[in-house]
């Protein structure tokens, strides 16, 4: 999914104009970037967390020449998916909206096969 597709989905789901939806998506992204820049983590329950990891300086090799090169230390953003997101992706759980619409367990319970 591209950013433009995300904007379209948000506009449709929230009944907003594309311009308003685009601004909303931009605000969310800016907030995530600003928070990570400050060294803080972002936890979105049921979805996952964004953090910044410190990568130490190290020695590498130029792939064309094979010469050793020095790679400086840097900070990199990292996303760790939450348990619920992993379960949804792997088909172990129904999405929250499907859970609310699902019939009660009494209606779906099948007699045991013998």
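Q: What amino acid sequence fits the structure above?
A:
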């Amino acid at each position: 999914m591209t950013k433009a597709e995300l904007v379209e989905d948000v506009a449709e789901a929230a009944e907003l104009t594309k311009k308003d939806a685009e601004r909303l998506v931009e605000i969310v992204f800016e907030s995530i970037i600003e928070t990570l820049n400050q060294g803080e983590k972002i936890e979105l329950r049921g979805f996952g967390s964004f953090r910044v990891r410190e990568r130490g300086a190290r020695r590498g090799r130029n792939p064309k020449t094979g010469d050793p090169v020095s790679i400086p230390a840097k900070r990199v953003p990292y996303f760790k998916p939450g348990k619920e997101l992993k379960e949804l992706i792997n088909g172990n759980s129904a999405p929250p909206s499907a859970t609310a619409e699902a019939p009660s367990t009494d209606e779906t319970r099948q007699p045991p096969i013998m």
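Q: And what stands out in the fold?
A: Residues 102-112 have pLDDT under 50 and may be disordered.
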